[in-house]
Amino acid sequence: MLKPEDTYLHKGQRKELVKKLQEKGIKNQAVLDAINTLPRHFFFDSALLSHAYQDKAFPIGEGQTISQPYTVAFQTELLDIRPGEKVLEIGTGSGYQAGILYLLGAKVHTIEYNSNLYERTKKFLPKIGIKVKHYCGDGSQGLPEQAPFDKILVTAGAPVVPTSLLKQLDVGGRLVIPVGDRKTQKMLRLTKQTEKKILKETFDNFSFVPLLGQEGWK
Ligand code: SAM
């Protein structure tokens, strides 16, 4: 597949999207810049291309979705990524969120449960210059062989906070994860202040596809 085109029209649409995200309360300039830089339409099926800059989630095949830009911005802002940090993303999907983390200077490890999405995204991201490490498997249990991580981001809705993920977080590290029922989840941010002390903060409601697996939905 050839590298898709990024026209002035797309660039203008991205600027408008960034403006909308600012109006909705996103403040972190590095996050807004990354969204302004990464062409979201590269991650879309040709039939849906004209929708790429709407602030909505869209199907990416395999019954899965690319998250709404506001959700990507909100989760990324909560993570507060510093360049060089080691980040685990659970739920690679289209690779868009992994691309945003990469543009923020993170060393990204991303794991996807669905083998077709894993194969597709692993082939696609290098073609648009995004270098992250891809894994296929059950991310509800984290990635113990690569732990500890400075930040962990879960992009699917979990029934509970997986204890494996807290274990694999470095002291000072943060886990951002939507937790709730299959329809609606509260966004949580858990900061590992010491080996034994976790600060838990609760934010707005979101609606994610379910996190499957051992420490997800059965
Ligand atoms: N971050 C993605 C993006 O930028 O396109 C969107 C993620 S989509 C909302 C959720 C993804 O999580 C799906 O691709 C789904 O297959 C994946 N998923 C669900 N359970 C998982 C698990 N236990 N481990 C890894 N990935 C999982």
TrEMBL record:
Q: Does the keyword Manganese apply?
A: no
Looking up SUPFAM superfamilies in the UniProt record yields: S-adenosyl-L-methionine-dependent methyltransferases (SSF53335)
Which EC numbers does the record give? 2.1.1.77
Keyword Cytoplasm found: yes
Concerning InterPro entries, the annotation shows: PCMT (IPR000682), SAM-dependent_MTases_sf (IPR029063)
Q: What is its main location?
A: cytoplasm
Top EC class, one word: transferase
Q: Which GO terms describe its biological process?
A: methylation
Q: Indicate where this protein resides in the cell.
A: Cytoplasm
Read off the Pfam families from this record.
PCMT (PF01135)
- Show the active-site residues: S67
Q: Tell me the superkingdom of the source.
A: Bacteria
Which reaction is recorded as catalysed by this protein?
Answer: [protein]-L-isoaspartate + S-adenosyl-L-methionine = [protein]-L-isoaspartate alpha-methyl ester + S-adenosyl-L-homocysteine
Q: Which UniProt keywords apply?
A: Cytoplasm, Methyltransferase, S-adenosyl-L-methionine, Transferase
Name the family the entry cites.
Answer: Belongs to the methyltransferase superfamily. L-isoaspartyl/D-aspartyl protein methyltransferase family.
According to its UniProt entry, what is the function of this protein? Catalyzes the methyl esterification of L-isoaspartyl residues in peptides and proteins that result from spontaneous decomposition of normal L-aspartyl and L-asparaginyl residues. It plays a role in the repair and/or degradation of damaged proteins.
The molecule here is called Protein-L-isoaspartate O-methyltransferase
Question: Which organism's genome codes for this protein?
Answer: Negadavirga shengliensis
Cite the source lineage. Bacteria, Pseudomonadati, Bacteroidota, Cytophagia, Cytophagales
